[in-house]
Design goal:
With 236 residues, the chain is of the alpha/beta class. The chain is built from 10 helices and 10 strands. The protein binds adenosine-5'-triphosphate. It holds the Pfam family ABC_tran.
């Protein structure tokens, strides 16, 4: 098991956002977490990245418990997150943004190799490497956010709503690239509101409702599940 989330509780002040959830991710998988607004999907990813703290429960990565490890060290262990809303640095160029993603490394050869790989995955970023990130389109900013997360050379990539606000054709392109990234050996956890696209891409999925996991199954079984179809797939 690469990542184990065991009985995880997270509180924001007095409000409990996660009520004891369990999620397992095996090496090489794409696991998707589905759910409506406010279900706790982003909170789950942020807890793994160390950006919010667990009030109870455990998160174990490659056998290492994460609860006492700071967010920057968690990145160094091999967990990298592409946050919701992209959060690229608008006044820096595409290349500068990507280089920031490599803060964990001083190995210039490795950095160059990663850059070449990211430019292969996203040729658009190569074309625009000297452009200010703030002037990129939404889809390009999403590519940059994923590319920046990859620069940290992760073992597991956490993607928070990569399709948010993108035209369908771009969603398809981004998801195809995620498939390619996974095929290269990287494990992926994908939080999505676009349930259909996410389930078509993922191996397995979890469904969250108000801070709980209510369903877990293979992606194929979730796609065929009438409850999932009615609640998340527009009844198709
Ligand atoms: P969305 O798709 O809208 O981002 P989500 O499933 O990712 O939803 P979370 O963002 O994890 O859900 O939110 C889970 C719950 O925690 C919600 O009720 C939300 O209002 C609450 N919450 C999230 N962040 C904070 C915060 N910083 N302070 C207080 N409450 C928060």
């Amino acid at each position: 098991m690469l990542l184990e989330i065991k009985n995880l509780y997270v509180k924001y002040g007095n409000v409990e956002a996660l009520h004891g959830i369990n999620i397992n991710v095996d090496k090489g998988e794409i696991v998707t977490i589905l759910g409506a607004n406010g279900a706790g999907k982003s909170t789950t990813l942020m807890a793994v990245s160390g950006l919010v703290k667990a009030s109870m429960g455990e998160i174990i990565f490659s056998g290492t418990p994460l609860h006492k490890i700071s967010a920057d060290k968690i990145v160094k262990l091999g967990i990298s997150q592409s946050p919701e809303g992209r959060r690229v640095f608008g006044i820096l160029t595409v290349l500068e943004n990507l280089k920031l993603g490599a803060f964990t490394s001083s190995d210039n050869k490795k950095i160059k190799k990663n850059l070449d790989w990211i430019f292969e995955l996203f040729p658009r970023l190569k074309e625009r490497s000297e452009q200010l990130a703030g002037t990129l389109s939404g889809g390009e900013q999403q590519m940059l956010a994923i590319g920046r997360a990859l620069m940290a050379n992760p073992k597991i990539l956490l993607l928070d709503e990569p399709s948010l606000g993108l035209a369908p054709i771009l969603v398809k392109a981004i998801f195809e690239t995620v498939r390619e990234i996974n095929k290269s050996g990287l494990t992926v956890v994908l939080v999505e509101q676009n349930a259909k696209a996410a389930l078509k891409l993922a191996h397995r999925g979890y469904v969250m409702e108000v801070g709980n996991i209510v369903l877990e199954d293979t992606a194929q079984a979730l796609l065929a599940n009438p409850d999932v179809q009615n609640a998340y797939l527009g009844g198709t």
